[in-house]
Design brief:
By secondary structure, the chain is mainly alpha-helical. The chain has helices at 4-19, 23-36, 39-60, 76-82, 86-99, 103-115, 118-139. Helix 1 packs across helix 3, helix 3 packs parallel to helix 7 and helix 5 (86-99) packs across helix 7. It is globular.
Length: 153
Amino acid sequence: MIGPEGLQPLVQEILRHTLDGRPAVAASILSVVTEHGDSADLFGVCCAAADTGRVALQVLFPDAEVGPGQEWQLPPAMADQLAGDPHRLFAARFVTAYLNGDHPLALALFQAAETGGHQERTESVCALLAHVRRLTLRAEQGPATPDPGGVPA
């Protein structure tokens, strides 16, 4: 286990390189986490990435108010589109679960990605990072036209 003090600077570097369009560097730092850390450390990377996605979605949908009994959902068309790519589907579902504060679901999604082995887990986390980068780039353009009940691709 790397632990919070050691993990924090690694997560910051992973996100910085991801958002700056250097996925290979981010993946290299991510490999340090997977080699020297444990599942809790890698889950921490995923949650930090999802939190960055949350910030981007707040910019994209500033008027979205999700209150009791309401939640963000993947539009069915997006889920269908991503069904053929389990890593991208993991990314979209993880961010959505995190947005909804459904940490048990986020953890279950992460654990499911882990059961596929090291390569599958790494590809899922990299897809999550890429998803967050796309959301952030889109947020830099300003608020989106809302898709009722959905999260943008």
